[in-house]
Structure formats: structure tokens, C-alpha cells
Amino acid sequence: MLLTAVFVFLPPLYAEHRGLGAATVGLMFLSAKMVDMVAAPMWGLFMDSYRTRWGRRRPWLVLSVPILVLAILMVYNPPESASPFYLFMWLAILYIGWDAWTISHTSWALELSRDYDRRSRITGLLQAGVMVGGILVSLVPAIMERIGSPTYEETVSTIGRVLIIALPVTALICLLSVPERETPNRPHLGFRKGAAILFRNLALLRLLVANSLLTFSTYFVQGLFVFFVSYTLHLGERIGFILVFLVVGGLIGLPIWVKLSQNLSKHRTMQVAVTVGAIAPLLLLILPPGSVALATAAFLIVGLNTSANEFLPRAMMADVCDHDHLQSGSERMGLYYSLLQLSSKLASGIGIFIGFSFLSIFGFDPELGMENSAEALQRLRYLIVALPIMAYAIVIGLMWRYPISRERQHEMRGLIEEREREALRSAAEP
Q1: At what angle do helices 374-398 and 202-227 cross, to 10 degrees?
Q2: Which of 7, 23, 217, 311 makes an SS bond possible with 123, Cβ 3.0 to 4.6 Å?
Q3: Model pTM?
Q4: Which spans in 264-373 are helix H?
Q5: CA 164 from centre of chain
Q6: Phi-psi map region of 400: left, alpha, beta (phi>0 left; psi -120 to 50 alpha)
Q7: Which residues pair with 55 in a beta bridge?
Q8: pLDDT digits (tens, 9 = 90+) for 147-185
Q9: What DSSP designation does 430 have?
Q10: CA–CA separation, 369 and 377 (whole Å)
């Protein structure tokens, strides 16, 4: 819910309804990501290094809730005089809380199993939660549009209130329902050695670049979604309704990608998914204005690969951690997932920055809305299609001959488990 709400609804609120301008809003999103770049790996290292009586992951999930609630309250209800600094400050605080939430939650999930295919199922279920959350948050404006004529500010404020209610409730459900698996906790690994192992991990570097490109594509499209639907397609009053189908497309595609990753491999499945992702947006080039049915069908198809963009990198990162575990002797899931999060969040900020900067370069002014020239509206159509296709083409190349296959992961797990059994035997000897 938070993922969709931040990148779809906040940029237009500040660019158009608070008058900050597209380029300034893009810059503030990117600047807040700089804070994120520092906070994410610090959270990951901290969580990996310290175990409390309540576990390594649970306390930080709890801590994140009040941070997020405060940040959401402020960022979704800005004053009329909200400045660029106001947006930057509350976005940065939101990202700090978001890091604590997502790193603790997803590391907890990825540590539940060491099996190659079971990890795909776990991350698939995580992604199903992401898709359901996206649908739920998209239903808020859809319902409001159905029963009344809310202003954009009222819609965004209501979304914020829904998030504030959902955060503590979902955190409590998680805490009461899922155990943490006992994992090795070896904080003695030196910084220099740990960093050297990390930077020599070529599978990690390739995955981080691929994940950055996938995230860039997803949030580039989401960042421009409101403008494209409102002004190019002339369907501003049906934004929430059409957004639901973009998310539903991802939910429909999810079991396909999970099953394919089990029949092929995760990196081959990623190649197939991004190929679909590169072809589907071409529909937007021929989509006529004013047709709700065609727009919902097109965005349903465009959304098919979005679930793969999220769940496959996480499932693959768990396997990359096995390579690190073999080299370092430590299970550093929090650090590695924080790096994945870092690449995602930086790419999303760059996506918003580039998208909104290009709007200005291409002559589109959000404050003009339908008064933009026909040429500017057509350029917006080309923009929302071309850049994601270019990013997906690079990902296909990065996944060519990816080094961690199912067979290699099984081999690494066998070596790790044998080493752990040997350590237990040595500890048991007098």
C-alpha cells in the first residue's frame, strides 16, 4: 500500500496542487533518496550484528511503525505553503522508517527457508501481499470517485489515513503469527574483509544493476501515470479505477512467474518477464483517448510483469547470500537485502527525477493540464513507453549466463551445511 501510494499519488500532489513544479518535486524525491542511501545499509548492518531477546528482526519492525505514522501524517497533509524543504524532510523521515520496516520484514521472510524453490514461493507470497496492498490503496480513490467528487488533496489525505490505520494492525498480525528462524550471528567479521567479499561477488553486482533498472522502469511509469491517464487519455476522473487494473495485472502474472521460476530458473524467468515488459507498453502508443475499457485492458497487460520485477530480485538475493555465507562464514541477509533496497530506492528516485525533468524538457507543464499542446501530450506518451523498454533490454543482457543456477545453489547449501555440522561436532568434543 505504501509503495503505490508514495510514487503514484504524492508527486502530482506537490508538483501540481502545491505548485512546486515537476522538476523541483523530482529533485526532492532524489535528494531524499540520498538519505535513504545512508540509512538502508546502516539498518542492515545493525540488524545482522545484534540479536535481542525478541529476535534480530522483530524489534525493528515495531520501531518503524511510529516513525512511518508520523511521516505519513505530515507528507500526505501538507500545508498550502509547503516548501521543497518540507517535502524533502518528511520524505527522508518516511524513508528511514520504511528502511527499518522493509529490511526487518523481508530479511525475516527470506531467512525462513534455505531451499532454492521454496524461496521463490515465499517471495511470491510476499509479492502477492504487495499486489493486494496496491489494489487496496488504489480502491480508495476509486471508491471516493464513485460516491462523490473529491478534490485531489482530499483523496491523498484519505489514502494517508488508511495507511496510518493499516500500519500498526499489519505489524501486529506479523508479530503474532510468524516465528523467526534461528540464524548464525557472527558480528566479528571485519569491515575490510566483509567489504572485500561483498565487492568480489559478481552475481551481487549484476543483480543490483538489474534490480535498479527494473525498479526505474516500474516507478518511472507510476510517476507519470496520473499525468498520462488524466491528460493524454482524458480519463482523469477514472485514475483510481484504471490503477486497480495495473496492479491486478501484476497479481495475475505472479503465479505464472513463480511457476516458471520453478520450471526454468529465476534468472531465465527474469529474462522472459522483462521481454513481456518491453513488448506490452507498445500498446500505450496506440491507445485512443477517452476509452475506459481499452485503457483498463492495456494497463492490465502492462502490469503483468510488475510482480516479477519485485519478487524475482528478492528470491535471487537470498541465493546470492548463500555465496556470501560460503565466503564469509556469516549469514548477512539484512545487509544484502538493504543493498537490494538501496538499489531499488535510488532507482525509484532517479525514475521520478528523470521522468519529471523530461516533462519540462519536452514542454509538458503539469499545472496546465489539458491546456498543454497536443505535441507535449504526445511526447508524454512516447516518454512513458521508450525508457522502460531501453531498461528492460539491458536487464536481458545482465541475466545472460548468470552464475547462480538451481544446481549451484544446492551445491553451496551442501557445503555450508557440512561446515555447520563440522562446527557443531567440534564444539561438542571435550
Answers
A1: 160
A2: 311
A3: 0.74
A4: 266-279, 292-302, 306-328, 333-361
A5: 19
A6: beta
A7: 52
A8: 888 888 888 999 999 999 999 999 999 988 888 876 554
A9: -
A10: 9
Alpha carbon separation from 277 to 214, 262, 304, 387 (Å, rounded) = 10, 20, 8, 12
Q: Terminal CA-to-CA distance of the chain, rounded, Å? A: 54
What string of DSSP letters covers 43-94? HHHHHHH--BTTBSSHHHHHHHHHHHHHHHHHHTS--TT--HHHHHHHHHHH
Read off the C-alpha cell for 123: 517471495
- Asked if 214 and 391 touch (Cβ cutoff 8 Å), the reply is yes
How far, in Å, CA of 333 to CA of 325, rounded? 9
- DSSP, collapsed to helix, strand or coil, labels residue 331 as coil
CA dist list (Å): 401 to 10, 142, 229, 412: 39, 44, 39, 18
Give the per-residue SS3 of 378-417. HHHHHHHHHHHHHHHHHHHHHCCCCCCCHHHHHHHHHHHH
292-302 and 239-263 helices, crossing angle to 10°: 30
Cell of 304: 503483468
Alpha-carbon distances, residue 118 vs 23, 113, 315 (angstroms): 43, 7, 9
Under a CB-based contact definition with an 8 Å cutoff, are residues 162 and 140 in contact? yes
Query: In this predicted model, what pLDDT tens digit does every residue of 255-267 receive, in sequence order?
Result: 999 899 989 899 9
C-alpha grid cell, residue 316: 535471487
| Burial degree of 139 (CB within 10 A; 0-12, 13-18, 19+) | middle
Q: What is the number of alpha carbons within 13 Å of residue 191 lying toward its C-beta?
A: 3
Residue 418 class from Cβ within 10 Å (0-12 exposed, 13-18 middle, 19+ buried)? exposed
Listed as own residue / partner, the contacts of 384-387 with beta carbons closer than 8 Å and 24 or more positions apart are 384/220, 384/221, 384/224, 384/228, 384/281, 384/284, 385/281, 385/282, 385/284, 385/285, 387/216, 387/217, 387/220, 387/354, 387/355
From its phi and psi, is residue 201 left (phi > 0), alpha (psi between -120 and 50) or beta?
beta
**What is the pLDDT of the chain when averaged over all its residues?**
85
* Residue 149 main-chain phi, psi, to 5 deg: -130, 70
Q: What is the dihedral of CA 280, 214, 255, 252, to 10 degrees?
A: -40
CA distance 351 to 190: 35
